[in-house]
Every structure is written in structure tokens, then in C-alpha cells.
Design brief:
Radius of gyration: 35 Å
Structural class: alpha+beta
Largest sheet: 6 strands, mixed
CATH architecture of the largest domain: Orthogonal Bundle
Shape: elongated
Domain Protein kinase: 144-431
CATH superfamily of the largest domain: Transferase(Phosphotransferase) domain 1
Order of helices and strands: EEHEHEEEHEEHHEEHHHHHHH
Distance between the termini: 75 Å
Number of domains: 3
Strand content: 5-15%
Number of strands: 10
CATH topology of the largest domain: Transferase(Phosphotransferase), domain 1
GO cellular component, one term: membrane
Catalytic activity: L-threonyl-[protein] + ATP = O-phospho-L-threonyl-[protein] + ADP + H(+); L-seryl-[protein] + ATP = O-phospho-L-seryl-[protein] + ADP + H(+)
Family: Belongs to the protein kinase superfamily. Ser/Thr protein kinase family.
Helix content: 25-40%
InterPro entries: Kinase-like_dom_sf, LRR_dom_sf, LRR_Rcpt-Like_S/T_Kinase, Prot_kinase_dom, Protein_kinase_ATP_BS, Ser-Thr/Tyr_kinase_cat_dom, Ser/Thr_kinase_AS
């Protein structure tokens, strides 16, 4: 329905909206003054006070002629005064809400959204990857409201958002400081991430870049992460059962194998952990946050500027040298498997209360050495698992978390072992090597004190072979 046909329309404020066109002067619009259309330079028409191009100028209004007084009988003067007072009161009664509404609207603080152009903004051709405006993401996340925070990590905060098409997204707001000239490098890394497409990898939907903001947009994962399902699930949610945990182990291994062997250049994750393995609607594993470590190191394109990772998941050689490789991801994956089996954190000071090791890897080795396999398994499983499958998954985890990166398998080999190919041979070989290594460690060393560190020198553990 046109606004001119709304006969009850009493208040209209279209000022400061950058509108354009001809404003009609009929219907309800004839009641309004130019104040209702202030600061809209491209509006024209008699109501606005600005003539339209090509139209004759407005004729001045006729001069005001005061009405001549009309004599009335003296008896009617009191009645007229009462009637006038009633009419004025009624007019004030009807006008008061409009006045209050107009005052409230003027007084109410408004949120202002604006986009800032990037310092370097070359034309972007990133296939299906969308470049979002900052305003779009501000609106989607309710101006990055704390109530929409899904999580916090080493790269920044993640917000739940809803786009204008109704779809739910997760918006990662990167927190690193920006340096001039980093925009092109950022776009390059974003393009690299977007080209990694696999069913077990989190798909990048889009990005936003300004001189002060770096944001990545992903599909929203309704089932959260493996970590949240293991340790932060609500009371009404069922724990992950054993078949689901096995699928998660295989799916995440396939995703990492794709990053290492099928991306050019290969992508090193550098922070593989249960919190970065997300779960889709069918509880299939989706590896998230891949590529972000290098993305955040764009200040120097050749050298890693920081050791990125989470304590308990960081491979010893990466921690000591700062050099990462696909084998550092393999180590983190092995620790993630132990999280999946035990339900515990990779690093937990609470274990000190029971005189246990704070590092999950050391804690697991200690229990295996004491042949207490049943104490390793997550109590939430309630013995609903197959012992032989648990042992095999522990074997894969220990092979992946060996101290020497050269001794760890590749992720493609891990996938084959989880599929039942080659685990028995690899485990037997590992045990033989560990027996020899243990003999060397136990031999006397007169010239030096030998300190055995479980993260550097692994001891053979007694597990039955794969079945």
C-alpha cells in the first residue's frame, strides 16, 4: 500500500537517509513539512521545498489575512470558551504521543556501521569464496556480541552469526596486530585455504579484510567440537559412543592426510587437538583451523614467527627448534587419539591431586606399564567398547607420538593402519626397536648422567598385538 493512502499517518521522519526522487504532494504526504525530508539532497517536490529539475518554481504562498471578528451573543461566549478548551485539550491529547515518539526517536542512540577500505585492495578473484563487508558480519553477529561467542582460541574469538539469507555461520575474528602491506599476503593464504576441499575439512565460506580487521567465515557446526562433546556436553546430550569415536579417528586422519599429501603447497596444521576437530550433523569429523598458523605469520613470509600450538599437543622438536613439519601434526594427532580414548585433557594439573602425570601421554604410558588398560578408557563409555579395538587405537596413538619425528608414520600410513592395513607389522617393529633402545638406556654411562624423559625416549609398553 502506498504511503500516500495511509490516512492515519501522522508522523514521518525520512531525514538523513540519502533518498532520491520526487516526493508526492497528495494524500497523507500533503500534511508534512520539509523537516521530514531534511538532508536528502536528491529529493524534490513541493513538500521538500526543492523544485524538481524542469519544473516551474514554486509560487509563494498567499499572504495571511486575519479573519474579521464575528460578534456573538453574550450568552454564547461562555459556551464558546468551553468548546474551545475542550477542542484544544483533545488536540493536545492526540498530538502528545506523536511528539513523544518523535522526541524518543531523536534521543535514542543508533548503531552506525561503516566499511573501511583496505590499504591495498586489488581486485579479488577467489572462485566461490565470498568477500563479506564488515557491516554484513557486524549485523550477522549482533556487533560481535559476547552472547554469540562460540569459543576462544590462540587465533581469536569465534562468533555465531546468521546471514541475511538465514544461514548460520561461525565468524572467526583474528586477533593479531596488522602490519602495512600484509593484505596481499593475507589474500594469498586465504585463497590457499579455500582450495583445500575435502569432506573431512572445514570449508571456508568467505572472508573480510580491512586495515584493522581480519575475519574468516565458516559454516556453523551444530555439534561443536570433539573436546566439547567429551568434556563440556550438556546433561541431556548423550556421550560419544565407541563406533562414533572410531569414525572420528579415521575421518580426522583422512582430513590431515589430504592437507599433507594433496595440497600444493602442503598445509601444516600446527595445532591438531580435539578442540579443532569439529562434528557435523552426522557426527562426522571435520578438521578446522587448518592454515591459520601460517595465515597469522604473514608478517614474515619465510620464517615461522612463533611456535603455535597447545601445551600437551606440541611435538618436542617443534617446541625446541620452532621448525614444524607434517610430523608435528602426526604427533598432535596421536595425542588427540588419546583424548578420544580417555576423554581427558592433554595437559591437566588436576591429575596432580592423584599423584599422576599432568601430561596425558605420560599418564597413559604409566598405566600401560602397570597393565591397567581398563583405567585408560573414558568412563562415559560404560564398558561399551571392544578391548581389541581400544588396544589398536592406543598402538596407533603411541606410534604417532614418538619422540623422534623420523620414527612417526605419515598421516597416509595412519589412515591405512586405521583401516586395518599394516598396523601389526609396524607395531612389532616398534617394539623391537624399543627393546634395544631400553637396553642402551639401562647400560652404564660413566661419563654422563642419563636422564630418561618420556617425551624424548619412549619405553616399550606391553600391549597385545593387533587382532
Amino acid at each position: 500500500m502506498p504511503l500516500t493512502n495511509i490516512t492515519a499517518l501522522q508522523v514521518l521522519d525520512l531525514s538523513n537517509n540519502q533518498l532520491s526522487g520526487v516526493v508526492p504532494d497528495n494524500g497523507s504526504f500533503s500534511l508534512f513539512t520539509p523537516i521530514s525530508f531534511n538532508n536528502n539532497l536528491d529529493l524534490c517536490g513541493p513538500v521538500t521545498g526543492h523544485p524538481c529539475p524542469g519544473s516551474p518554481p514554486f509560487s509563494p504562498p498567499p499572504p495571511f489575512v486575519p479573519p474579521s471578528p464575528i460578534s456573538a451573543p453574550e450568552g454564547n461566549s461562555a459556551t464558546g470558551a468551553i468548546a474551545g478548551g475542550v477542542a484544544a485539550g483533545a488536540a493536545l491529547l492526540f498530538a502528545a504521543p506523536a511528539i513523544v515518539f518523535a522526541w524518543w526517536r531523536r534521543r535514542k542512540p543508533q548503531e552506525f556501521f561503516f566499511d573501511v577500505p583496505a590499504e591495498e585492495d586489488p581486485e579479488v578473484h577467489l572462485g566461490q569464496l565470498k568477500r563479506f563487508s564488515l557491516r554484513e558480519l557486524q549485523v550477522a553477529t549482533d556487533t560481535f556480541s559476547n552472547k554469540n561467542i562460540l569459543g576462544r582460541g590462540g587465533f581469536g574469538k569465534v562468533y555465531k552469526g546468521r546471514l541475511t539469507d538465514g544461514s548460520l555461520v561461525a565468524v572467526k575474528r583474528l586477533k593479531e596486530e596488522r602490519t602495512p602491506g600484509g593484505e596481499l599476503q593475507f589474500q594469498t593464504e586465504v585463497e590457499m585455504i579455500s582450495m583445500a576441499v575435502h569432506r573431512n575439512l572445514l570449508r571456508l565460506r568467505g572472508f573480510c579484510m580491512t586495515p584493522t580487521e581480519r575475519l574468516l567465515v565458516y559454516p556453523y557446526m551444530a555439534n561443536g567440537s570433539v573436546a566439547s562433546c567429551l568434556r563440556e556436553r550438556p546433561a541431556h546430550q548423550q556421550p560419544l559412543d565407541w563406533p562414533t569415536r572410531k569414525r572420528i579417528a579415521l575421518g580426522s586422519a583422512r582430513g590431515l592426510s589430504y592437507l599433507h599429501d594433496h595440497c600444493d603447497p602442503k598445509i601444516i596444521h600446527r595445532d591438531v587437538k580435539a578442540a579443532n576437530i569439529l562434528l557435523d550433523e552426522e557426527f562426522e569429523a571435520v578438521v578446522g583451523d587448518f592454515g591459520l598458523a601460517k595465515l597469522m605469520d604473514y608478517k614474515d613470509t619465510h620464517v615461522t614467527t612463533a611456535v603455535r600450538g597447545t601445551i600437551g599437543h606440541i611435538a618436542p622438536e617443534y617446541l625446541s627448534t620452532g621448525k614444524s613439519s607434517e610430523k608435528t601434526d602426526v604427533f598432535g594427532y596421536g595425542i588427540m587419539l588419546l583424548e578420544l580414548i580417555t576423554g581427558q585433557r592433554a595437559f591437566d594439573l588436576a591429575r596432580l591431586a592423584n599423584d599422576d602425570d599432568v601430561m596425558l601421554l605420560d599418564w597413559v604410558k604409566g598405566l600401560l606399564k602397570e597393565k591397567k588398560l581398563e583405567m585408560l578408557v573414558d568412563p562415559d563409555l560404560h564398558s561399551n567398547y571392544i578391548d581389541a579395538e581400544v588396544e589398536q587405537l592406543i598402538q596407533v596413538a603411541l606410534l604417532c607420538s614418538q619422540g623422534s619425528p623420523m620414527d612417526r608414520p605419515k598421516m597416509s600410513e595412519v589412515v591405512r593402519m586405521l583401516e586395518g592395513d599394516g598396523l601389526a607389522e609396524r607395531w612389532d617393529e616398534w617394539q623391537k626397536v624399543e627393546v634395544l633402545r631400553q637396553e642402551v638406556e639401562l647400560a652404564p654411562h660413566p661419563n654422563s648422567d642419563w636422564i630418561v624423559d618420556s617425551t624424548e625416549n619412549l619405553h616399550a609398553v606391553e600391549l597385545s598385538g593387533p587382532r
